[in-house]
């Protein structure tokens, strides 16, 4: 077990070094092989880990972590000087001071450095499978990038190094270690966003850097208060053990701040939107599928301690607001990747909200959302890459001929959007579970529950408006071309997309099984509560909630089959006519509707800042 | 056995019931305008006439999506009548509407596009209100299942009259009745999404409209569910209200509709939810 977990940390690092040295063909084989191995290992861990598995690494690691922390901050300092950014500089100095002080007061002995429980393994599977698929996709994508051969290798190298960082971050129990790897993901973001080396990339990379540094600073603050208030060592398990001690709210709130920053909640949404200038596989990996999932991960980890506290209430109210605000913001966008980024922020808000509510069912809802959102968004982003590379589209308004020129891509994107929106797909499940279980919440915290339900109902409707807008462009075609011939893209592209599509369909079909064997055990271990799963009548009962399996499965047959059949079906013996246009012969150019919602963005930011202030204030009171 | 028989019969006969309702509606509307109006069975005569027309489509994707709109709407109605989860029913209805919207977008017809745009916006107008009403009902009955509303001791109408008011405000949007018939707007966009369907393919859209009638009146019936007489009375009232309104009001534009729904109907539903959880909950 120990060896397997360590191999999840070491193997990606080794690959990341090797791709720099090896020739192109060999490194291709290496990338594909190691992607497969990592997925298999994480899958094996999923079935084999029952109890939380604690282990420490040798004492030298503490020194290594401290030295790495200092080196990292020195690097950030050099970035601040090079780019003349006083904000980065100030935050780096603050972090440096805090770190040095902490190193002085941190007690020597740690009981466990790492904890691998079901939640970690849940994340392992998501991280390794998705990162594996994306790294295979990037082999092809980065080939077409306009940069030197070394930078192409360098790109793959950071990608694998990032996988290692993610694997460590979800299993580290020690917060000093957690801080280091949190900052390393920030570094990965910074390097990737600035990868294209133009002016706008540099600017957005700096924004991402300083915003995420605030999150890092919040973690340092949390460590400080844990040690200062005398709760013992700064580990997650220790924090959860002290969850009922008064005064523990401040470190919890600071960790929530770190999560909310990483999860790009307003006003920090700017960094995620700016991150869309990075190469598309990066957007898929860091900025939608894995790295930003650290946000719900932290909240899930803390949920037993957070549940019912005023901090949780503020987080719930705030994410409810962000869910609507991000959806409204998306309505004014035309760039495909920016639309995806906005909807990522909205859905992250939903996940964080579910995790912060902390009842068994909402935890399951959060896990469902994390899982299915990871798969669907990854597929959508990879398709954005294909659109960019093969079809040369970046704006959604250009896509109105895609159903004719690229029927496969258009079909896959349609399914991707539907999986975020409609029953029976996973993201719908999360939303539906959310509404149902927040009904229960309202009994305890009545006003909050009512507001949040309004937020989910409105945000959900706005998001559906948004997705229909894009879907509508994808499906439009004329009656002139009746044949459907799937376009030929590159083999690596179609392979990765097909794998993802298969995974989505498989996991939706096996949702009742996934529910009882995958999400429920994770949720039950996270909360240390047994959750009962029974099948009674036509329904799968999970805790207090009933999942109507039969209608959902029928809906599953109905919807995808409809979409796929609609693409292929051709009615025989039916006459074709032109569209009705009042007898006019002019060509109409179609566009979708846009709402000028940009004006609201500053107000949203202000409200977001107010929420952050409230979060800290309630934790001190 | 009897419990399941009535819903199944209702589900199977839903298109016929919807057709009769539609026929009756045309008579009532005509009488309001001092006309005689068509016979009660006119929708069925239209149905037979349409089946005989020459088959013409723009393209197969479009025609097929129209048919699936009907199928999925029937499915949503079936889940509702069988006492399923109300939130799920609302989402399944969204699914069926989504197929209609996609059908609208799938052609390069300007009116079809406009209709699809407007249908999408009307989802934003009625869906949040319906969800809030469903959650309020949950607060009272303790379950999202429609069947639990039937088993609940009192009529929802007296427990949450504001929810009924909010429902009255959004039903014309859902049924595409004036002043909120912007998605259809015959004088403006010549029927919107419906326009490009014809003959036997239009039939699917046509019957889907009847099913939508049944769907909406079932929602109204739920407010008097434990007293069938009250339930029928409510349905009749909603029927007369909607058609009277349809006859007596002029069409608004989509911005006015959005504003009305988000500023008037949604807050009413929200106040109802607050009252329910603060004062009425057990």
From TrEMBL, chain A:
Residues annotated as transmembrane: 6-22, 29-47, 59-79, 86-107, 119-142, 154-172, 178-195, 207-227, 239-261, 273-299, 311-332, 339-357, 363-387, 408-428, 448-471, 492-514, 545-569, 600-620
Keywords, comma-separated and alphabetical: Membrane, Transmembrane, Transmembrane helix
Origin superkingdom: Bacteria
Domain NADH-Ubiquinone oxidoreductase (complex I) chain 5 N-terminal residue range list: 112-145
Keyword Repeat: no
InterPro entries on file: CPA3_Na-H_Antiporter_A, ND/Mrp_TM, Proton_antipo_N
GO CC aspect terms: endomembrane system; membrane
The protein's name in its UniProt record: Hydrogenase
Source species of the chain: Ginsengibacter hankyongi
Domain NADH:quinone oxidoreductase/Mrp antiporter transmembrane positions: 172-437
Pfam families: Proton_antipo_M (PF00361), Proton_antipo_N (PF00662)
Membrane-topology descriptor: Multi-pass membrane protein
Cellular compartments annotated: Endomembrane system; Membrane
UniProtKB/TrEMBL annotation, chain B:
Annotated transmembrane regions: 6-24, 63-81, 119-140, 152-171, 229-245, 257-280
Record's keyword annotation contains NAD: no
Pfam families found in the cross-reference section: NADHdh (PF00146)
Membrane topology note: Multi-pass membrane protein
Recorded GO CC terms: plasma membrane
Keywords linked to the UniProt accession: Membrane, Transmembrane, Transmembrane helix
Cell compartments where the protein resides: Membrane
Top-level taxon of origin: Bacteria
Name of the protein this chain belongs to: NADH-quinone oxidoreductase subunit H
């Amino acid at each position: 077990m120990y060896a397997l977990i360590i191999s999840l940390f070491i193997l990606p690092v080794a690959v990341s070094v090797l791709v720099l040295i090896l020739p192109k063909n060999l490194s291709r084989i290496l990338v594909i092989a190691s992607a497969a191995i990592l997925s298999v290992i994480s899958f094996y861990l999923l079935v084999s880990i029952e109890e939380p598995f604690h282990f420490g690494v040798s004492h030298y690691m503490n020194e290594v972590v401290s030295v790495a922390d200092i080196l990292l901050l020195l690097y950030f300092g050099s970035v601040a000087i090079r780019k003349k950014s006083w904000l980065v500089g100030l935050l780096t100095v603050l972090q440096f001071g805090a770190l040095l002080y902490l190193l002085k007061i941190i007690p020597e002995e740690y009981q466990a450095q790492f904890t691998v429980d079901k939640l970690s393994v849940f994340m392992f599977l998501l991280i390794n499978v998705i990162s594996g698929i994306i790294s295979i996709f990037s082999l092809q994508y980065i080939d077409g990038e306009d940069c030197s051969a070394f930078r192409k290798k360098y790109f793959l190298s950071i990608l694998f190094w990032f996988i290692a960082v993610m694997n460590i971050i979800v299993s580290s129990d020690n917060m000093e270690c957690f801080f280091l790897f949190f900052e390393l993901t920030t570094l990965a973001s910074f390097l990737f966003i600035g990868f294209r080396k133009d002016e706008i990339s540099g600017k957005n990379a700096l924004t991402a850097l300083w915003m995420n540094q605030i999150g890092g600073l919040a973690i340092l603050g949390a460590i400080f208060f844990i040690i200062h208030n005398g709760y013992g060592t700064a580990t997650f398990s220790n924090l959860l053990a002290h969850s009922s001690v008064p005064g523990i709210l401040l470190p919890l709130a600071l960790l929530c701040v770190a999560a909310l920053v990483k999860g790009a909640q307003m006003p920090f949404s700017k960094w995620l939107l700016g991150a869309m200038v990075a190469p598309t596989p990066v957007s898929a990996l860091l900025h939608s599928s894995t790295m930003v999932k650290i946000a719900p991960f932290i909240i899930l980890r803390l949920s037993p301690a957070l549940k019912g506290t005023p901090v949780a209430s503020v987080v719930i109210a705030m994410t409810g607001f962000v869910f609507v605000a991000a959806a409204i913001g998306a309505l004014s966008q035309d760039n495909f990747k920016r639309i995806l980024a906005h909807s990522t922020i909205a859905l992250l808000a939903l996940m964080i909200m579910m995790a912060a509510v902390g009842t068994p069912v909402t935890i399951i809802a959060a896990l469902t959302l994390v899982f299915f959102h990871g798969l669907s968004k990854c597929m959508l982003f990879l398709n954005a890459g294909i659109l960019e590379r093969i079809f040369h589209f970046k704006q959604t308004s250009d896509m109105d001929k895609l159903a004719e020129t690229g029927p496969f891509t258009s079909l896959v994107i349609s399914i991707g959007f539907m999986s975020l929106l409609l029953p029976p797909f996973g993201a719908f499940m999360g939303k539906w579970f959310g509404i149902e279980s927040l009904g229960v919440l309202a009994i305890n915290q009545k006003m909050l529950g009512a507001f949040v339900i309004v937020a989910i109902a409105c945000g959900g409707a706005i998001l559906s408006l948004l997705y229909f807008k894009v879907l509508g462009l994808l499906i439009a075609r004329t009656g002139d071309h009746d044949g459907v011939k799937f376009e030929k893209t590159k083999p690596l592209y179609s392979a990765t997309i097909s794998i993802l599509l298969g995974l989505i369909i498989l996991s939706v079909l096996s949702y009742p099984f996934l529910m009882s064997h995958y999400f429920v055990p994770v949720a039950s271990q996270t909360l240390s509560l047994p959750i009962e799963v029974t099948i009674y009548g036509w329904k799968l009962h999970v805790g207090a909630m009933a999942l109507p399996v039969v209608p959902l499965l029928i809906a599953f047959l109905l919807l995808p089959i409809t979409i796929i059949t609609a693409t292929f079906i051709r009615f025989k013996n039916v006459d074709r006519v032109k569209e009705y246009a009042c007898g006019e012969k002019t060509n109409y150019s179609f566009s979708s509707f846009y709402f000028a919602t940009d004006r609201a963005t500053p107000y949203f930011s202000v409200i977001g800042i107010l929420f952050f202030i409230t979060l800290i204030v309630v934790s001190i009171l | 056995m009897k419990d399941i028989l009535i819903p199944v019969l209702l589900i199977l006969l839903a298109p016929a019931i919807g057709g009769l309702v539609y026929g009756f509606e045309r008579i009532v509307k005509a009488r309001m305008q001092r006309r005689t109006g068509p016979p009660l069975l006119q929708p069925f005569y239209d149905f037979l006439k349409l089946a005989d027309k020459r088959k013409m489509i723009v393209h197969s994707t479009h025609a097929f999506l129209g048919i699936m709109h009907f199928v999925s709407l029937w499915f949503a109605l079936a889940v509702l009548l069988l006492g399923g989860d109300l939130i799920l029913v609302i989402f399944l209805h969204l699914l069926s509407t989504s197929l209609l919207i996609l059908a609208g977008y799938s052609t390069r017809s300007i009116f079809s596009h406009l209709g699809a745009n407007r249908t999408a916006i009307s989802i934003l107008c009625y869906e949040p209100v319906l969800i809030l009403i469903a959650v309020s009902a949950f607060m009272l009955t303790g379950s999202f299942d429609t069947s639990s509303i039937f088993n609940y001791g009192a009529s929802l109408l007296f427990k949450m009259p504001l929810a009924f008011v909010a429902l009255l405000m959004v039903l014309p949007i859902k049924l595409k009745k004036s002043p909120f018939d912007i998605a259809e707007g015959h004088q403006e966009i010549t029927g919107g999404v419906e326009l490009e369907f014809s003959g036997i393919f239009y039939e699917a859209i046509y019957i889907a409209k009847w099913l939508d009638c049944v769907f909406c009146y079932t929602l109204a019936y739920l407010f008097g569910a434990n007293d069938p007489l009250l339930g029928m009375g409510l349905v009749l009232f909603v029927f007369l209200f909607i058609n009277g309104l349809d006859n007596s009001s002029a069409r608004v534009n989509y911005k006015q509709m959005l504003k009305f729904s988000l500023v008037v109907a949604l807050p009413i539903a929200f106040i109802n939810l607050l009252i329910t959880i603060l004062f009425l909950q057990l």
